[in-house]
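Page 47, continued from p. 46.
Same chain as before, 229 aa.
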Amino acid sequence: MLKRVFDVTIALIALFLLLPIYILVAYKVRKNFGAPALFRQSRSGLDGKTFEIIKFRTMSDDKDSEGNLLPDEARLTDFGKQLRASSLDELPQLWNVLKGEMSIVGPRPQLMEYLPLYNTEQFRRHLVQPGVTGYAQINGRNSISWEKRFKLDIWYVDNRSMWLDVQILLKTVRLVITMHGICAEGEATMSRFTGNRQQSYKVINARVKRSLLSCRCLNRHFSERDTNI
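Result:
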């Protein structure tokens, strides 16, 4: 209950203070990319349930000769990079907070397609509401690996408190001003999460090898019996 009051209070204050910036960014986005200025996408929230996150657009809709969207790095303009660096593209998520779909502080909501890729420990990040900012965002943001990001998310889930939320929020403001940790070195956008497939493949391969070894042992056993007979 206290956290919800904190979320609504901070969201309302931020919307009031940042309204002129909100209007200016919306105008700039429409001027650079056309309408609509907002970008909506399905993300996984509390308990893995779907909700629509709202952000300002940072990419163009440029397509190749076959009508397919160009890669992210080709569609991310200098203006879009500036929006991401300043985190101004995240401003509309304050509406998600007021609607009760997000919290001010919590693990960042990820794509729905990532849900089947989480292991049991990683899925625990969905025990709390996703946040506009989070513990992982003040400890590397998009410049750290997915594995470390999820570990930081789980740490927050296990140690969350109002005082911790205040600390994270204050540090977030400082990092936004310095525009630190926007993305990993050599990448225009955050790398995609590919899950634990590699680990799964190793397990499957190990099982296949054991099965093949068992078959070979059985074949050798029966061959020896046939020879003895």
